[in-house]
């Protein structure tokens, strides 16, 4: 299955909407992946161009949603400034890069 795509804008104003859409998508991916024994939902962050700290809240919620389904997440193509924000907030290890 292909990676889940994050939106171009991840800011406070659309954080709730992003979380809801991603929760549904993660559930679908985890269920589909379970049939193949894959427990990782890959999230593609390449489209993210505008974000604030709410993006971290959304990604951490994705992790909780995946954990509840006995899956994990891995993030590919995370913009360097967003990755720096994960280190600043001390959550980088909770949002691993996809291999």
From TrEMBL:
<dbReference type="InterPro" id="IPR002645">
    <property type="entry name" value="STAS_dom"/>
</dbReference>
<dbReference type="InterPro" id="IPR058548">
    <property type="entry name" value="MlaB-like_STAS"/>
</dbReference>
<protein>
    <recommendedName>
        <fullName>STAS domain-containing protein</fullName>
    </recommendedName>
</protein>
<feature type="domain" description="STAS">
    <location>
        <begin position="1"/>
        <end position="99"/>
    </location>
</feature>
<dbReference type="Pfam" id="PF13466">
    <property type="entry name" value="STAS_2"/>
</dbReference>
<dbReference type="InterPro" id="IPR036513">
    <property type="entry name" value="STAS_dom_sf"/>
</dbReference>
């Amino acid at each position: 299955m292909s990676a889940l795509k994050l939106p171009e804008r991840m800011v406070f104003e659309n954080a709730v909407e992003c979380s809801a859409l991603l929760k549904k998508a993660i559930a679908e991916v985890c269920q589909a992946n379970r049939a193949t024994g894959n427990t990782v939902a890959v999230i593609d962050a390449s489209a993210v161009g505008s974000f604030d700290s709410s993006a971290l809240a959304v990604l951490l919620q994705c992790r909780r949603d995946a954990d509840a389904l006995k899956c994990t997440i891995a993030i590919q193509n995370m913009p360097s400034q967003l990755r720096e924000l994960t280190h600043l907030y001390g959550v980088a290890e909770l949002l691993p890069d996809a291999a």
